[in-house]
Design goal:
mainly alpha, about 0% strand, globular, membrane
């Protein structure tokens, strides 16, 4: 009985660690999926493959709730108070915030590529690309991309400094970059969309903020699909593991989002590029030497 209790506590601690890693890496452009795959090489959950596949995706809901809490006023499109841009001066339109509704339209447009093409390729990607070797390649490639783009971007004035100035063709292109991350683990959803936004002339702050908002439908949709495919937790232990992972991801995400938005006001993303390259090289060495399977 004692060994069983110790085992259960250890599994809950591992779930906590997975949630912390998710909360840190979801918002920094270093790939949450890639880090969870690598973490699984060293700290495997004692659960079925079906549950682990669902767990890695659904704990992202905790991270998403952090965005909703922090940016609630910029996300909720209803209310007469603090509404400088109503859809109409009277009636129901006076309760609609035009600028926020326009933002959501842009988010929906940017979501289309990953929602359509990513969905079609999800099973194939899961079967063939969700491994440490794909993670290594994408970590290094996008690490180099970040360093190069920041050098290219350094002396340029952004064409679009806020979400309101984003054009629909721009957000569609950002959505295509998100599609790359949906297919190739290790790319980083936030990293891919930020790289794409910077290339298109979007400021760092607007790129990061739009990436946060874009994550809401993307990750809610991904979580729903995994729950449909894999089912709900089948035991009380699995439910506890999932809840701990989600709660820890939520708490850590609150801290990380605030840190990132403060950080990019004075710094660029180059440090994350170097981090990706160093991590990719270390994992590559681990794979070659047989330390990582």
């Amino acid at each position: 009985m004692e060994r069983t209790l110790v085992h259960m506590v250890w599994e809950l601690i591992k779930s906590l660690i997975f949630g912390i890693v998710e909360g840190i890496t979801e918002w920094l452009p270093i790939s949450s999926t890639g880090h969870l795959i690598l973490l699984d090489e060293f700290l495997k959950l004692d659960a079925t493959d079906n549950f682990k596949e669902m767990f890695d995706v659904v704990i992202q809901l905790g991270a998403i709730l952090a965005v909703v809490v922090i940016y609630w006023k910029k996300l909720w499109p209803f209310g007469k108070q603090d509404n400088p841009h109503p859809m109409a001066q009277t009636g129901f339109g006076a309760c609609l915030k035009k600028d926020i509704l326009q933002m959501w339209c842009k988010v929906i447009v940017a979501t289309v590529p990953a929602a359509v093409i990513g969905l079609l390729l999800d099973d194939w990607s899961q079967a063939h690309l969700y491994n440490a070797w794909t993670v290594v390649i994408m970590l290094i490639l996008f690490g180099i991309a970040f360093i190069w783009i920041e050098k290219w971007h350094k002396n340029r004035t952004p064409k679009m400094s806020n979400i309101a100035s984003l054009r629909y063709n721009t957000v569609l292109m950002i959505g295509i970059f998100q599609l790359i991350a949906a297919i190739f683990p290790g790319t980083s959803r936030s990293g891919a969309t930020i790289v794409g936004a910077l290339l298109l002339g979007v400021s760092r702050t607007a790129a990061a903020e739009f990436t946060f908002f874009l994550a809401i439908p993307a990750m809610f949709g991904a979580s729903l699909l995994k729950l449909v495919k894999c089912g709900l937790p089948s035991t009380g232990m699995e439910t506890a593991m999932l809840l701990i992972g989600m709660i820890s991801a939520f708490v850590v995400s609150i801290v990380v989002i605030r840190f990132l938005m403060s950080y990019i006001k004075k710094h660029d993303f180059t440090v994350f590029g170097w981090y990706r390259i160093v991590l990719g090289v270390l994992v590559l060495i681990g794979g070659i030497t047989g330390f990582i399977g």
